Amino acid sequence: MEPDDFLDADMTAAVEKYERMLRDNDRLYFDSDELEDVIDFYVGESKLKKALDAIAFARDIYPFNTDFIIRKAQIISMMGDSSRALQAIEEAEALEPFNPDIILVKGEVLDQLERFDEAIACYEKALETTDDKSEIYLNIAYVYQNSGRFDDALSYLMRLLEEEPENEQVLYEIAYCYDVMDKPAESIRFYLQYIDQQPYSFAAWYNLGVMYNRVGDFNQAVWAYDYAILINENFSSAWFNKGNTLVELDDYEGAIGCFKKTLELEGQDAIIFCNMGNCYEKLGMMQEARTFYKKATKLNPNLAEAWFGLGVTFDHEARFNEAVAFIKKAIKLEEEDADYWYSLADVYAKMNENREADIAYSKAVQYDPLLWEAWLDWSLLKLNENERQEAINILDDALHMNPEIHQIYYRQAAYHYMFGSRADSYEYLKKGLGLNFNEHFLFLETAPLASSDMLVQDLLDEYRR
Q1: How far apart are alpha carbons 370 and 224 in whole angstroms?
Q2: Distances (CA, A) of 373 to 71, 343, 347, 377, 378
């Protein structure tokens, strides 16, 4: 019999004895270890009220045993009543004011109550009473994180890393602090220096990859993930992140391979199936894409992205009715997603269902006014319906929300030119040229007659310089 089997047997025996006592309304003797087993059992079963009853019984027998008071405070805290938990732990503190376990629990409760300075004072007191400082450093870092003082949190995490240089949890907490502080460059420098000392830390390589992703250096991110995988080939998070990074690099086949490996390690997962569907979609393999999108919806019917992906595959095949049905399912789950509304509008426009397209475009720009492509397509819909003023009004609204988007100026210039408002056209053209001269062809494509206009040519010559 394994040692754990003895422990399980002891716990089972203690619980049976305790429950038999309650059932028979008897009074039996328990040593403190038996009662701790009973309490641990109820906590493990999430029967917190029964655990508190067992603690009350234990305290009748052992009124000065602070271990039971500590457990009471922890359980009350788990139940969400931090104020009562503080009262309990202060009762234990009155009995043993220098017990580091009591001080630590008090710090945790004060942190939950957002009495951050008092929590830190508790932990600093605990540092004076124990030689094992690692857990306390981590708790102090958590308090500083919770109070938004991430520089201070980093300083304690670095202290902990000096004592335990291979502590993976600390590496992730350091990454979190740098991420929240929006200091990816500093984070990258830290991990590179750390890797110089600990080259076989797959967690460090992984976090380095995450930070390279953050700054958009996808090739370096793949390099870092590859080292993490080389050190730990079963590191599923590294495989998954590498797959997502390869998607950013348009290496969809490579990404599929990474996602397949992640599935081998983690089992079926709706997000991974959805990502694979997206890769096959980008490769133009719509049937394969649908297969994985459907797998995703079966695992998670509330995954809007997968329903949307199904709609996109049908749109690619000009099966517009089916596309509309699936995109609507996605919108039902995430009504304020502008991209879903924009895609729905696009499909309706292809079907010449202009009224429905008009509604969908308006929803798209309502939920994301910076989605300038939707404004352009909406204006084109109105132009095709010969609603010239409405097309211009839409672009005016678009420019109000997106004053730095040269594509809108070029389109507005083209519309005014086509409708005979040449002076207005030239003004919009100037603004477009000032923002991006190289794409002036956008104006000429929409208003081709302007290519023979000498004033237009003079403007092009002026901005070309």
Answers
A1: 34
A2: 59, 11, 15, 6, 9
% pLDDT > 70, the chain: 98
For residues 247, 252, 258, 264, the Cα torsion angle rounded to the nearest 10 degrees is 120
Taking the C-alpha atoms of residue 380 and residue 413, their distance in angstroms, rounded to an integer, is 14
Contact at 8 Å (CB) between 206 and 241?
yes
Burial 323-341 (b: 16+ CB within 10 A, else e): bbebbebbbebbeebbebb
Q: Which helix (H) or strand (E) holds 376?
A: helix 372-384
Per-residue pLDDT of 387-432, as tens digits, reads 999 999 999 999 999 999 999 999 999 999 999 899 999 999 999 9
Q: Who contacts 159 (Cβ-Cβ below 8 Å, separation ≥6)?
A: 137
Do 126 and 103 touch, CB atoms closer than 8 A? yes
Helices and strands (H, E) in the chain, number of each type? 27, 0
The alpha-helical segments, DSSP class H, found in 128-183 are 134-146, 150-163, 168-180
Q: Tens of pLDDT along 270-284?
A: 999 999 999 999 999
Q: Other C-beta atoms within 10 Å of 129: how many?
A: 15
| Tokens found for residue 397 | 């609204």
Residue-level length of the chain: 465
Spatial CA neighbour of 399 closest among 416, 384, 422, 423: 416
What does 205-224 look like in DSSP terms, one character per residue?
A: HHHHHHHHHHTT-HHHHHHH
Written as six digits, the tokens of 295 are: 């797998």
Report the SS3 class of residue 369. coil
Q: Give me the phi and psi of 223, to 5 degrees please.
A: -55, -45
The number of angstroms, rounded, from the C-alpha of 419 to the middle of its chain's C-alpha atoms is: 48
Cα(2)–Cα(395) distance, integer angstroms: 75
- What is the distance between the alpha carbons of residues 101 and 410, in angstroms, rounded to a whole number? 69
Pairwise CA distance, residues 106 & 253, whole Å: 53
Token pair recorded at residue 117: 């300075």
